[in-house]
Automatic annotation (TrEMBL), chain A:
Its main location: membrane. GO terms for molecular function: transmembrane transporter activity. CDD domains: USP-like. One of its GO terms (cellular component) is plasma membrane. Pfam families: AA_permease_2, Usp. InterPro entries: AA/rel_permease1 (IPR002293), APC_superfamily (IPR050367), UspA (IPR006016). Signal peptide: none annotated. It comes from Haloarcula rubra. It is found in: Cell membrane. SUPFAM superfamilies: Adenine nucleotide alpha hydrolases-like. This is Amino acid permease. The keyword Protease does not apply. Keywords: Cell membrane, Membrane, Transmembrane, Transmembrane helix.
Automatic annotation (TrEMBL), chain B:
It holds the Pfam family Usp. InterPro entries: Rossmann-like_a/b/a_fold, UspA. Residues 6-132 form the UspA domain. This is Universal stress protein. CDD domains: USP-like. It comes from the Archaea.
């Protein structure tokens, strides 16, 4: 077997039972009594309605899952498509939603244990008292959290057996029940609104299918098995819910269920409707089987939810929405013990503070928010249609179905109990605040949606563009990429980059870009990797050593490409560089012979700030900075400031003017003050710009010039003014071109 | 000794373990080393932790080993039985021996996790070399 086959070992049945196992515990074994009391004969309809609403989202989740079978499921899709703001909402909602759901399942579990052992009443600890059911729930939750903390792989395998057993018990219950069913037993039907409210109450029975997507990376042949499991689990549980509810309404006399709840002594544990009905219809054996089934069902629901929530934590930590420290794996148990421990603590807390309806309502509300966002994510992915988006399963009738799915999910929120709804929205709001205050400066991943909007900023309305730009992540960390080609200039470039990175507490990303002729396939170049590796390794190791002398973090990468300039641009994007420091000269990336082709590759805008060094020995002791204002000399100023801080350089600021020299001097004074270069020397010259700069540069060791709007690299290879200047002076020249959208200064100040 | 440590497979389970093993190996004269991490699979049931998560962890372990030994070969294996998979890996790379460093931990923890090091020396089909961990207690967990 290949590694791929070994890593993806969840078969179709196992995937299906994750969904069914998570859902069935709540739907059958906890809620039917309340649903029948509330909606009468419409209870069954309420469950079917829930199934239909869930189905729209199940379709969307299936398509997204086959396109991106990644750990984290729903959170991952939302974050990927809609960006980290919504990703933060989806992640927190999914995580806390699962914790609420687990608490709910455990209270259900507590009711079963209480029923079996005849426990009731409350237990007091001094001024605090807690019901017996909750006490059992707490113990049960602690047990399942412990099992997941220590990580027994047997529990996962039990899931299949448990689900098959449950389905078998319910099949027998339903079949035998039909013999006794009679229409005249049906309780009175309630209004549509009550039915919808009932759907809101029982929607916690439809959370499990989305947990299948959180383990999507482990499913065999996900293109086929994931949609089958997701959609199949929703169909299966909807049918089971509907049939069981019909039997529970039609096979017992009217008022039987309501009677169970009457005359309960205060503090007495509420009866479990499905067990009572089973016992009434088919005797103690069925009552016992259902009791046992309920224990297994609620336990497996909680267990699967705790497991799924740790995958969501991982995916959130990977994207730095939460601290990756949460994802630490236990050295012995091999479990994400911190994530499980925290989730466990939340579950215990929720059991203590919430009653059954609040827990189920919060779980439903939070998941409905995710479902709405999931449908939105699907619409965005289809609309933007990025190249790598290739789902095996396609939602039919696009965009109708996901729109209906999203609208229904958000609409059903209106029928979730108001306190639970408030809690759900409170958590969503807190997740937005969390993004703004915490995650935004840390996460680096940008959503497909905002990428799309920002890349078409000319065509789309300004409001959309500024909204997208306003919430995009800034990664927090300042990354300086250095594309290396000629070993001779490695030291100077890395020194410069490290000095800048050090000033910003950032990282140096040294990349060796290996260009191979177009005739050579990249794959065959990769086969020669040994030779390339040796050169790369040597170069990058030196780069690492040089950068480490500055005490900055270093990353190294080797990139094989046909085109060196294009590769630099691509690498700057993929490695989320904030600044690229590269060399230029006859023996650097753009050799004269390649000028024509290099020119074709250039796009107008650079993907981040660029500094291009014409290296004649790096010596920042005397910096000459000619300026007439403008964004690119903002970048030059910022670089000068950083070099000054690192090397205590003398900075001279030069303005060449034909107007009144006093105006120019005044301009330079303001400009230097604005750019933190107060102690720079000010020099004003008149006459020809180029020769004035060349003359002034005679005293300098480094000339720092901003590019013009046209694009620095374009000018560099086309031999225009800037380049002439580069050849006219004897010192090293550093050319600065600022990225248009998110430049150095905006990022930092 | 040179023959036995000609080409060794070093199974690692955590970053600390990788560092301790690498340090232990650095004190020996050896030929080539292949650091291996086994992602334990449940075999048809959801795993204790996600595969992607453990692949990332494995890379961190390999980094820790590289920090001590420089460039070493590394590989991730997947299997339901960690010990069997380690010996499969040893066969794959035609290793002269499998090198382990004691991981400490009390009896109870070893019982709960099924002590891998113990099984390695009782169920081995090729030489297993147990190297002493650092004396100053840096090794182990």
């Amino acid at each position: 077997m290949t590694d791929e086959e070994l890593a993806k070992d969840l078969g179709p049945l196992a995937a299906l039972t994750i969904g069914v196992g998570t859902m069935i515990g709540a739907g059958i074994f906890v809620l039917p009594g309340d649903a029948i009391i509330k909606a009468g004969s419409m209870a069954s309809v309420a469950f079917v309605l829930g199934g239909v609403i869930a189905m729209f989202t199940a379709l969307s989740a299936s398509e997204l899952g086959t396109a991106m079978p990644r750990s984290g499921g729903a959170y991952y899709y939302v974050n990927h498509a809609l960006g980290p703001l919504f990703g933060s909402v989806a992640g927190w909602a999914n995580w806390l939603g699962l914790a609420f759901a687990s608490a709910f399942y455990m209270v259900g579990f507590g009711r079963y244990i209480a029923r079996i052992f005849g426990l009731s009443g409350t237990v007091g600890f001094g001024p605090v008292s807690i019901s017996a059911v909750k006490l059992v729930a707490l113990a049960g939750a602690a047990l399942f959290v412990f099992i997941n903390y220590v990580g027994a792989k047997e529990t996962g395998r039990l899931q299949n057996a448990i689900v098959i057993l449950l389905v078998a018990i319910l099949a027998v219950f339903t079949l035998l029940g039909t013999l006794r069913a009679a229409p005249e037993n049906l309780p009175e039907a309630r209004s549509v609104v009550t039915t919808l409210e009932t759907t809101g109450l029982i929607f916690v029975s439809y959370l499990g299918f989305v947990q299948i997507t959180s383990v999507a990376e482990e499913i065999q042949d996900p293109g086929k098995n994931l949609p089958r499991a997701v959609i199949g689990s929703v169909v299966l549980v909807t049918v089971i819910y509907a049939l069981v509810l019909v039997i529970m309404s039609a096979a017992v006399p009217q008022g039987f269920i309501a009677g169970l709840y009457e005359n309960l002594a205060p503090g007495e544990t509420a009866p479990i409707a499905v067990v009572e009905v089973g016992q009434y219809l088919q005797g103690a054996a069925m009552g016992g089987a259902l009791l046992f089934g309920g224990l297994l069902a609620t336990a497996s629901s909680a267990n699967a939810s705790i497991l799924a929530s740790s995958r969501i934590n991982f995916a959130m930590g990977r994207d730095r929405i939460v601290t990756p420290a949460l994802n630490e794996i236990h050295p012995r148990f091999g479990t994400p013990y911190r994530a499980i421990g925290i989730t466990g603590g939340l579950i215990l807390l929720f059991i203590v503070i919430g009653d059954l309806t609040l827990l189920s309502g919060a779980a439903s509300g939070l998941h409905l928010i995710i479902y709405g966002l999931l449908n939105g994510a699907l619409i965005v992915m289809r609309y933007v249609n990025p190249e790598e988006y290739a789902p095996d399963f396609i939602v039919p009738l696009f965009p109708l179905l996901p729109i209906v799915g999203g609208v229904l999910s958000f609409a059903l929120l209106a029928f979730v109990a108001s306190d639970a709804l408030l809690l759900s929205f409170g958590i969503a709001g807190a997740a937005i605040l969390w993004y703004v205050l915490y995650a935004r400066t840390r996460t680096e991943k940008q959503g497909i949606l905002s990428e799309h909007i920002l890349s078409r900023s000319d065509e789309l309305p300004d409001a959309a563009v500024s909204a997208a730009a306003g919430v995009q992540p800034d990664g927090g960390q300042y990354r300086v990429m250095v594309p290396l080609a000629n070993p001779e200039h490695e030291k100077d470039l890395i020194t410069l980059a490290s000095a800048l990175a050090k000033q910003r507490g950032g990282t140096v990303v040294a990349t060796h870009i290996v260009t191979v002729p177009d005739q050579t396939a990249l794959a065959s170049a990769a086969e020669r990797a040994d030779e390339i590796d040796e050169t790369s390794e040597h170069l990058l190791n030196r780069a690492r050593e040089d950068a480490e002398t500055f005490g900055v973090d270093v990353e190294t990468h080797t990139i094989i490409s046909h085109k060196s300039f294009e590769a630099i641009f691509d690498a700057a994007r993929t490695h989320t560089a904030n600044l690229v420091v590269m060399g230029w000269g006859p023996d650097a990336h753009g050799s004269p012979g390649r000028a024509e082709s290099a020119m074709d590759e250039l796009t107008e805008a650079v993907p981040c700030d660029f500094l291009v060094l014409r290296d004649r020995g790096f010596d920042p002791s005397h910096i000459l900075l000619p300026t007439a204002g403008g964004p690119d000399s903002d970048l030059s100023a910022s670089v000068a400031q950083m070099l000054q801080a690192e090397y205590d350089s003398d900075v001279t600021v030069l303005n060449v003017t034909d107007d009144d020299p006093e105006d120019a001097e005044a301009f330079l004074r303001t400009w230097t003050a604005d750019h933190g270069l107060d102690d720079a020397q000010i020099r004003v010259e008149q006459g020809d710009v180029e020769s004035a700069i060349a003359t002034a540069a005679e005293d300098a060791t480094l000339l720092l010039v901003g590019a013009t709007e046209e694009g620095l690299l374009r000018r560099l290879v086309s031999g225009s003014l800037v380049m002439d200047l580069v050849d006219d002076v004897d010192c090293s020249v550093l050319l600065a071109e600022k990225h248009r959208e998110r430049g150095l200064l905006e990022r930092l100040f | 000794m040179a023959d036995l440590l000609d080409r060794v497979v070093v199974p690692v389970a955590s970053e600390d373990d990788a560092e301790a093993s690498a340090r232990a190996l650095a004190r020996q004269s050896y030929g080539e080393a292949v650091f291996v991490h086994v992602v334990e699979k449940a075999g048809g049931a959801p795993d204790k932790a996600g595969v992607e998560q453990r692949e990332l962890e494995a890379e961190e372990m390999f980094e820790a080993a590289r920090a001590v030994l420089g460039d070493v070969e590394t590989d991730i294996y997947y299997g339901t039985d960690v010990v069997e998979t380690i010996f499969d890996a040893a066969e794959d790379v035609d290793a002269s021996a499998v090198v382990v460093t004691p991981r400490g931990g009390n009896r109870l923890v070893q019982l709960a996790t099924g002590d891998v090091a113990l099984r390695m020396v009782t169920e081995n089909d090729r030489p297993v070399v147990v190297l002493p961990a650092d004396q100053d207690g840096e090794g182990g967990t």
